[in-house]
Amino acid sequence: MFQEIEGQRPVVVSRNHMDRPRSRLYRWVKPDDWSPTWNYQRSLMAGGVYAGLSSAYYQVHTPCTELLKFYQSPNNFAQLRIFIREIFKMDSFKRGFGSSLAFNSLYGLSFEASRIYLWKDFLGGYPNEPDIVDHSWFKKLATSLLVGLSTCWIPVPFNNVQIRYQQDQILPPEHARGYKNHFHAAYSIATKDGFFPFFRGGLPIMAEKTIQTMCLFFYLDFIKEKCHHIQHYGTDLGGFSDNSMRLIYTSLGVYLGVLHGYPILTLGKMVEQLPLNSKGERFFNNYSEAAWKALGENFNVYSLWHGFHRYLLKVGPPMFLTMWFADVMGLFDILYLEGYVVPAS
């Protein structure tokens, strides 16, 4: 509403702002090949790939890290051959072929397939113009945050069951509950203790997974859109290959996603795992105190990323290969539309 002066009498003029031309680039547009069933099936395939890769990778990574805590790393091929032979002899490697492999596969399938499907379902219709940079990045950032909040709770029950099972293995027989495997532990917890233990202490994990998911998908889409413009820029010879561009935005997306979420894990270790002081007290009573002191009172802010690359080596390879596979299947395709203007409905 606004007023104009016509002589001495104010005249009220109404303007309907919806009756003006608007570009459909600001709307969610249904792609021509949109298929919710196909999106769901592709997401399940990507989740299955992550389940198989991550469970097999952790099968070797876990005993390897345990062995390196007590022995030095191999310096030549002869020592490497002995090192690998000792890994195959470890109990953690042998036990992993049972319920641990199936348990990790179930976690990877449920978590990875869920967040990839939601990302594709929510974001698949936000279009870009082919000749200009993306100007709807704020919608994609909000979408990635929504996906992170919607799926961050999935890892919590798996983490708590795994902790309870590992604790039961080291307890004396008179105090142990006798869990046979991860699934037996989950069943016993649900029938005897209820469902609350599945989610006890889950806020740090949920915060870390929310930040990781948000940054992973946002940066992957953001950098992929930029690679679209530089792939053929300034050349008549075809430019860079699709795989070279995919290597850039997939690796950067995974690296930045894990990088942003890792400080939450560091705070968790500072609160839960640091040894008690001489008075039998914790160094930090809560996460807020740990974060505040890590920002400068007692520590350096870079201490929040201490051990990051070891953690990246643990979670990065299966996540990178899964994102690569999902992108090849079209789950991260960007919808490009010409920037013409259509009247508002």
Automatic annotation (TrEMBL):
Family to which this protein belongs: Belongs to the mitochondrial carrier (TC 2.A.29) family.
UniProt-listed PROSITE patterns: SOLCAR
Write down the species: Stentor coeruleus
Q: Which residues form a coiled coil?
A: none
Q: Which UniProt keywords apply?
A: Membrane, Repeat, Transmembrane, Transmembrane helix, Transport
The record's listing under SUPFAM superfamilies reads: Mitochondrial carrier
Output the Gene3D superfamilies linked to this UniProt entry.
Answer: Mitochondrial carrier domain (1.50.40.10)
- The source's superkingdom equals Eukaryota
Record InterPro entries: MCP_dom_sf, MCP_transmembrane, Mito_Metabolite_Transporter
The molecule here is called Uncharacterized protein
Compartments where found: Membrane
Solcar repeat boundaries on the chain: 135-226
Mode of membrane association:
Multi-pass membrane protein
